Amino acid sequence: MSGLSSPGSAFVFGDQIDTDLLAPGHRMKLDPDALASHCLEAVDPGFAGSVRPGDFVVAGLNFGLGSSREQAAVSLKRLGVKAVIARSFARIFWRNAINLGLPAITLAEANEIAAGDRLSLDLAGGRLTNATTGRTYGFAPFPEHLTAMMRDGGLIAHLKRVGAEAQPETGATA
Amino acid sequence: MAGARASRRRTLVEKIAARASGSVDARAGDMVTAEVDLCFAHDSSGPRRWGPMLAELGRGLWDPSKVVIASDHYVPAVDAESAAILSLTRRFAAEHGVGHFYDMEGIGHMLLAERGLVRPGMLVAGGDSHTPMAGAFGAYAAGFGATDMAAIAATGRTWLQVPATIRVEWSGRLDDGVTAKDMMLFLCRTLGMDNAFRAVEFAGPTVEAMSMPERLVLTNMAAELGAETGIVAPDATTFAWLSQAGAPVAEKDAARAWASDPEADYEAVHRFDAGALEPMIALPHSPSNSVAVGHAEGQAIDQAYIGACVGAKLEDLRMAARVLSGQRVAAGVRLLVAPASSRVTQAAAEDGTLAILLAAGATLMPSGCGACAGMGAGLLAEGEVCLSTTNRNFRGRMGHAGAEVYLGSPYSVAAAAVSGRIVDPRTLLGQRRAAA
Fold this sequence. Notes:
By secondary structure, chain A is of the alpha/beta class. Chain A has helices spanning 19-22, 32-36, 47-50, 71-78, 91-99, 144-151, 155-162, and strands spanning 8-12, 56-59, 83-86, 104-106, 118-122, 127-130, 135-138. In chain A, strand 2, helix 4 and strand 3 (83-86) form a beta-alpha-beta unit. In chain A, helix 6 crosses helix 7. By secondary structure, chain B is α/β, with parallel strands linked by helices.
């Protein structure tokens, strides 16, 4: 499973991208695909229409702050976003994303990536390359229990595989 | 190494994490698998999302007696879709024997508090970002998304990275007309909203002197700081509230042990003077854009909204009534009041608060998340301006992305409703004191 993904384009956003921008509250009754068509429209009306499967969302600080609504991460996944690369994440969004198998990668140098840059990801190897600038970035690997969960395709798929008796085991219980 | 860890002075959150994970010790940064004591969700985040996942796992609820479901987001139904969500929620609660099901009785966070369901030392997992509100009872109360919550509902367990604790100490006495809400808007600017994987502990003489409803504002808006939980160590005020809620704490000495050790290993300690704090207003479109009210004064408003878990408790309605007594809402302004629970509405009716609000021209709304969550009545059109007692003002949250939402205390919202523009509520309170 290691090795670089095929390249995708970067869609770049700023700091403090909140869950109402990702999944607007007054659209929450819509089905997941319809809701996804409004993802980030308040800051980039063309985003949902132009992002393609395998592309990346790149952002600044505290991506996904606000509501616990998982639809914020679901919408990005429905649009085919390969991974979210941000300088930092809000906690609930970060958990939601990896629970769905959408990698949320913390990268201090995310602000060096420009809109349209061609990125490739090696999740297991902790490596992101920017073919446009020729730069390669390393990021801290996920804890083992979360890597295993993402490898299985998310939390529910993981629990189905290991049996619902176990949550992703951290090995830290007494 | 183990000895050094065991003798370490621990924070309250570390103690709860250790107890819940069956660990001898748990320190900030540790990954633990923890047993949840109370599991909460609402109509938007709960059954409609859990159902398919539980079916996929072939599981029911791990312990229905520890599950709380409150229908508060899509209430009352305004169309066939919201009616279907509420219907599904009712069926789920009946089929799974949910121990605590509240159907349109108020906002879940308020119900957890007013029904005495949260105890000191608990680990509470909630399918809503404002779950930290329950931390006012000395609990570790964290919000989770629907997949995490479905797994918790099925297994009673989850993984946690034990958060480091930021301690915020307040001393001094708040000026009349300055509230816990103003403290939190100040902290959103001062500490920022990027405090993920940290807990915020509120302490100091100002907090010790505070009522439970005001402490609930502190821990509720720990969510806006980005914190995993807000927390206040339990004391006589906590125990008195729980007794009144019909859930007295028998072992008070044991409950008092749910407190951080003196000089515990905090990530940071911040000290602030409550006496120097002014009413705060958050400008669009973030709680961290807060300024002293003087810098927002004169801003005209179309709507004044008193609602949400954080801003429509009985005490909040009483604050508004102090300003609105004998006054009328300004021409061209609508004042919407959505009490946090049906018990709040009833209490406000009994003590005369509601009569004052209605005489001033307020419109009484159903108890629920309403306009705050962008799902209920009271939404805004493009270009409209609202001052709201709610906890977040992200672009597009309360309706059109071109609407502008300001945040303030119930005093500030009531004062703006009367004046038609944002003003320092202390001037109106001063007039009322002089007239009295």
